[in-house]
Amino acid sequence: MSDFDKQVGKRLQLARKHAGKSIVYGGQMVGVAESTMRSYESGQRPISLENLSILSRVYNVDVDYFLGKQKEFRRPTQEDLERFSRGISRLDITQKEKVFRVLNAVFDYVFE
Predict the structure, then answer these.
(1) Quick check: helix, strand or coil at residue 73?
(2) pTM here?
């Protein structure tokens, strides 16, 4: 096991816990057993880029976080939310409808 695999594994575990998901659920999403997920998270087994990509969506983090290119993931701050709200309030009705459709599609994907 390489230092890189250990780093990826640690970040996988942190992202999973932050997302409030079980290790079993993560394994189900990529079609592997719980023991394999534990091997990924401990860095004892390398994970494929395909599975990292899937788990990045499941855990709502960028793949770059797992690869160490992004130092940390973060939830939006109150300031971020207020800035988003101000931006939405400046849109005309047609633009708001477009944003609504995009968010609806995201919610359908995330909560399917």
Answers:
(1) coil
(2) 0.63
Q: Is 11 exposed, middle or buried (0-12, 13-18, 19+ CB in 10 A)?
A: buried
The tens digit of pLDDT for each residue in 83-110 reads 989 999 999 999 999 999 998 888 787 6
77: left (phi over 0), alpha (psi -120 to 50) or beta: beta
Averaged over 40-61, what is the pLDDT? 93
Q: DSSP for 16-56?
A: HHHHT--HHHHHHHHT--HHHHHHHHHTSS---HHHHHHHH
Could you tell me the two tokens for 84? Answer: 């988003």
AA identity, residue 61: V
CA-nearest of 64, 67, 65, 69 to 47 is 67
